[in-house]
Amino acid sequence: MSAPPFDLLYTREAERVLGDLRSKKQYEPKLKKVRKALRLLEQVGPRHPGLHSHDYQSVPGPGGVTLWESYVENKTPSAWRIWWVYGPEDGQITVVTIGPHP
């Protein structure tokens, strides 16, 4: 694990969600929040207090690695989150998916 800034990589699932958000004007407010959270994750790192990053213990990450969760929204019904893992290389974060908190 290295210090920020991080290179963000995206799974196909995460790219699909971002594409869906970009495709409709009604999703612009949500896309703006997602972009801000991704920018903080990349430039400041997961320790930024607004992201409230923590390990997500309900589900293991790909290959059994620790899956992390960072906030896009808070105190909102079905608040959105970013789920991610460190790597595959040092200085990288792979965004697994983005969406409403289950």
UniProtKB/TrEMBL annotation:
Highest rank taxon of the organism: Bacteria
Protein name (database record): Uncharacterized protein
Origin species: Allokutzneria oryzae
